[in-house]
Structure formats: structure tokens, C-alpha cells
Amino acid sequence: MTLKNEDVRNIAQLARLQIDDSTIEQLTSDLSNILALAEQMKAMDTTNVIPMAHPMDAIQRLRDDEVTETDQRDKFQGIAPDVENGFYRVPKVIE
Amino acid sequence: MMAKTIKQIQQGLAQKKFSSVEITQHFLDRIDSHNSTINCFITVTGELALQQAKSADLVIARGEAQALTGIPLAHKDIFCTDGIKTSCASRMLDNFIAPYDATIIEKFKLGGAVMLGKTNMDEFAMGSSNENSFYGPVANPWDFERVPGGSSGGSAAAVAASLAPAATGTDTGGSIRQPAALCGISGIKPTYGRVSRYGMIAFGSSLDQGGPLAHSAEDCAILLQTMAGFDPRDSTSIDRAVPDYSEQLNADIKGLKIGLPKELFAEGLDSDVAKVIETAIQEYRRLGAEVVDIQLPNSNLAIPVYYVVAPAECSSNLSRFDGVRFGHRCDNPIDLEDLYKRSRAEGFGDEVKRRIMIGTYVLSAGYYDAYYLKAQQLRRLIKQDYEKAFEQVDVILCPVTPEVAFKQGAKTDDPVSMYLQDIYTLSLNLAGLPGISIPAGFSQQLPVGMQLIGNYFDESRLLNVAHQFQQVTDWHLKAPEVG
């Protein structure tokens, strides 16, 4: 799989990563090489093989719906970049 | 030196040869002298360590010591430590003071262990050389110009240079076993689900597993005893009794069936490394083990499958780092999208960005089936190979790495050449099996590791088989001269 610079820009947009124009050529080449490695999978026939998501094929464990955590908002917001009145502040989203 | 291993420190403390404060100060002094060269610690928690050591000495004086009371340890900077910087070696978390303890940190605290500090690593555990750290590369104590392996490179180097008697690490594709091999120490990656992942910053959630790095299998057993066990706070933790890992260490291995997968001794393996492994196999024959040839026909797929599955999981896990609630935020964002994109671009290093982008791509509409689903199907075939092999043998023996520690900078320009370093370690994580790396000899005056792979939850046997080797060899006792 050979990617084009434009493909890489699209992927970066999906991943919410700002890409510097000066690095795009190198990045396109690196990502294409990694995908070329992944291409080796294509030669294998996997008809009827059930995909494996978990090493023990375990299912999600559920617990009773009980309160187990205490409120630690102040502690958690103490490490936030920008808070006000208990809220996380970000640039204006709606005009 | 006062004492080097966990076992020796346990004995020294019990016989009052030294106090926990004294042994802790001894390691802090060594960190002070050598960390500027080796760069294996990101944060040294000297004051806290001495406080904990003082408390431990009181517990010891009261005769209430547990196995790890007063024993100094270092922790990979991927484990959240309440009130202490937890950076994952990333600029993204350079300002992150964890608001809680990871389960294993809590367990070590309850067990009375002393924390010396947090060790350097590849950023977000992505790398095989510890060159992807925001805090700079770690030097291999055997040759400062060479890499210590990764991603738990700081932990491995700290133990090899005796700046800590043992350390924690994590292993997503070899990140405990490979640095252990390149630094000449022992490290075990337990069965997936054996050690809690709560508070361990996630990279590949179906692959990640924490474990110890130490001077011997015996020390690994002591540490794993505290680390292992069910944790309701980790939804993938397995609820299964933890055996006494030290009890089995001395069991006779006569009649043990060791499998040699010919695929993992094929081209690409350095001939000197192969010779060291051959000699180790002879040692096991002398100990009465039976060596059998086995096949793992799909092992050549481990690299492509891993480098689809792990980035996919990474792209999902690392989407939480958005500059909003914690971690790095860019200056003067013009809007929310700019805040996300620049915070992430500034916060993540190159390798992390590459993996996020590969993961985003293989999970995106139109490519999901061809890459991600295909990789998951092949993952099952890799696991089935192991299941078949374990019908024939008790453990599998193979190399850990294709070559000894390489020079810093040798592979940084070519991500794919770096990925090929993981050829012998990745398939275990894909299958969820436990594996241990122990020193087996030297090539070019650099340590060579040997890997033993066990069946699910068979850590006791792996530790036993490794310990028996260490009873008749002294490779694990060799130490680099760092002064």
C-alpha cells in the first residue's frame, strides 16, 4: 500500500494531529513502509477463522450498579490545564 | 556492595546486617553517581524513599516484616503514582502528577516496599531501544554507546547497573523481555490478565501486561507474588488463585519437555547468539530435560499482525490525550479543533504519531476488514499454533532478540528495521502467553538472553525452569563495570 501525501493529511485529520508540511514526505514514506509490512497478511487464507479480540476469549465482566467511587473533582481538576467553577475550559465551540 | 538482589536484601534486613534506610541510601547514592550517564530514571523520589524506609525499619523492628518490607524498587514511569509525576516519557504528560496509584503500586506500598523513583522508557511504551523518550535515550550499562532495549529500557538498565535491585516493567510486544535480554538480567511477562492493568497507562489493551525485571528468576518470583492477582478495577483481570511462585523454584526438571520451534531459529538470527542458545539447550539436556522439535508455522505473521493490532489499540487509547482535562495543552488555541491538533502534535513524539496514524488508518471505513479484521483472524492462528505445541511440550525455548544490543542511532531512521527486533517476542503477547527472558551467555562482551515460553498461567513452571538454569550457570551474576 503506497500512500499519497493527501492520504496522510486525511489520516492526520481523523487522528486530530497537526502535520507540519516539512515532514509530510518523510511521514508518507514511513507509513507506506509500515503498511507494506502489514500487506504480508494478505497471502494468508483466513476464510472461516473467527477474529480474536482477547487472548482468552473472555467476555466483558459486569458488576452490580453500585457507587464505588467518591467525588474527587477538585483533585482531578488540580492537574487540568484550564478550569473555572468546576468546569474544564476550552475555546468557544458555538458562535 | 552491601547487597545486590532482593533475596540478599531480604536476608540482610532479617539478620540486621543493615537497615532499610541504609540499603535505600546505598541505592540512592548509586543513582546519584550514575544516573547522569545512564539516564535510567526520569524521577528520583529520594525523600519519599527514605521516609518509607524509616517506616519499614519500624515494622521490621516490631517483627512484622512481610516479604518486601523495606526493599527498594524502581517503577516504570507508566504506572500511576499518587502525587508523583507520571510522564510515560512523553511531553504530553511531562506536567502530569498522577491523582491515584496503579494497583501494583498500591500492592507494593501495602507490602512495605520502598520506591526509589520512576524509570525512563520509550514514549508510551512504543519502541525497542528506549530512544523514543522525551527525556533522552538510556545507555546500556554494558556499553554506554548501545541501547538498553525497550520499552522498559530504564528499568532494565537500572537493575543491570545496580541502581535498583529490581524494577517493574510492562510488556506489550517484548518490552520486558527484550531489554532484560540486552541488559543481561531476568524479566517475566506474565499471562495476559494475571497482573492488573489498573493505573498502567494503556498502549495496546489486549496485549499489555506488567511484570518484574530483576537479577534472577528467584527475585522475579518474589516480585510477581505481590504483583499478580485479580483486580475488580481492571475489567480484563482474570479471577484465578495465585500460586506460591517461590515454592516450585527448586523442583527437579528431569523429564521436562522443551520445545524448539525451528521457525524461531531461522534466518536473521545472529550466529553467535544462536551458539549461546545452543549451549544453553545443552545445559538443559544435562539437567535431564528432553528437547523436542516443534513447529509454529504462522510465527512469521507475528510482526505484520502485531503492527496492525497494537497501533489500532494505541490510536484508540491515546485519543484521550486531547489537551482538555490533563496533560499538555498548546498555547492560544484558536478553536477546539486547533486545541486538539496542536496539543497532540506538540505532545507526542514521532513514533507515537506514526502508530496513532497507522492505527487510525487500519480502523477507518474501507480498510477495517482488510487490515484489522484480517489481523485478528491471523492472531487466532498464531494462538492455535501455540495450543498445538503445548500438547507436545511443557515449555518452549527460543532467542529473545536476533542480535545483541545495537548502537544508539543505528535503527532510528527506519521504523520497520526497529520493528524487526521484536520478531521473537511479539507472538506471545498476541497469544496472551507468559514468557521469561534470562541471561544465557555473551557475544561481543554483550549479554545474550534466552526466552522460555509457558502455557497459560504456568508462570510457576517458567520460574522453576529458569531458576534451575541459574543454579548451574552464573550468567545472571555477571555485572557491567559502571563503577
Kindly list the characteristics that best describe this protein.
heterodimer, A: 95 residues, mainly alpha, two-stranded antiparallel ribbon, 4% strand, B: 483 residues, alpha/beta, Amidase signature (AS) enzymes, 8-stranded mixed beta sheet, 15 helices, 11 strands, globular
Describe what you observe in this structure.
The complex is a heterodimer of chains A (95) and B (483). Chain A is mainly alpha-helical. Chain A is built from three helices and two strands. Chain A has a two-stranded antiparallel sheet with strand order 1-2. In chain A, a hairpin with a 2-residue loop joins strand 1 and strand 2. In chain B, strand 10 and strand 11 form a beta hairpin. In chain B, strands 4-6-5-10-11-9-7-8 form an eight-stranded mixed β-sheet, with helices on both faces. In chain B, strands 1-3-2 form a three-stranded mixed β-sheet, sandwiched between helices. Chain B has a single domain, classed as Amidase signature (AS) domain (Amidase signature (AS) enzymes), CATH 3.90.1300. The longest helix of chain B is centred in the last third of the chain and has 25 residues. With 483 residues, chain B is an alpha/beta fold. In chain B, helix 9 crosses helix 12. The interface between A and B is large, with 50 and 72 residues.
The gist of it:
The complex is a heterodimer of chains A (95) and B (483). With 95 residues, chain A is mainly alpha-helical.
Residue-averaged pLDDT of chain A, rounded? Answer: 93
- State the fourth-level CATH superfamily of chain B: Amidase signature (AS) domain
In sequence order, what are the helices and strands of chain B, one letter per element? HHEHEHEHEHEEHEHEHHHHEHHEEH
Largest interface (C-beta under 8 Å): A-B, 50 and 72 residues
Helix content of chain A: 25-40%
CATH architecture descriptor of chain B: Alpha-Beta Complex
Strand tally of chain B is 11
**How many distinct helices of chain A?**
3
What value does the Rg of chain A take, in angstroms? 22 Å
Mean pLDDT of chain B: 97
CATH class of chain B: Alpha Beta
Q: Taking strands numbered 1, 2, ... along the chain, how are they ordered across the largest sheet of chain A?
A: 1-2
Q: Which bin fits the share of residues in helices of chain B?
A: 25-40%
